[in-house]
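Budget justification note: compute hours in this period were largely spent on complex prediction jobs such as the one shown. Inputs:
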Amino acid sequence: EVQLVESGGGLVQPGGSLRLSCVGSGFTFSSYWMMWVRQAPGKGLEWVASINQDGSEKYYVDSVKGRFNVSRDNADNSLLLQMNSLRTDDTALYYCARGLGLTPHYWGQGKLVTVSS
Amino acid sequence: QSVVTQPPSASGTPGQRVTISCSGSSSNIGSKYVSWYQHLPGTAPKLLIFRNNQRPSGVPDRFSGSKSGTSASLAISGLRSEDEGNYYCAAWDNSLSGVVFGGGTKLTVL
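Corresponding output:
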């Protein structure tokens, strides 16, 4: 059974940093694109970042470029999202997802990130 | 404002067939596969359709997808109360180099 479990998140002040982690199990982690998708309160789904199988390709939504960094450790089956210079509009439930091609297939349960003073 | 457009709401009565549309452009839906997701309150999104019209194992055949040009549709037949929730289309966008989601459609079962 495919499982994705996120950790990290929480409350941070504007301008602060936070790191999200996601551990995958039940599949060959190194064979899949991985991605982060978020949902702000009362809003729809928004793709945040994607990384290919060996970490050599990374893509980001414009609003997080230069502030967020996606990475992976295939030895540990883990996906990371380092979030810097956080803004109030980054407040959202962040989902880790395994790709089917370039779009999400399996999703984690999500981790809440709240940016507030 | 999403580059991929969905109607904000749809509704139907139990047993009916409803369709949800998704309109994009040549850089996304027109040239890439479309996926559809069901997002029920308090749960993680679930993949319903991939590669325009393929169902993952375990998804009932009441759910079907189609694509024509720069538009796609999700059809749900034999509507059930448990189908009530939000539905999203998504595709890779070659111009943006990223995944684009539609704004989502809230389905109400009357």
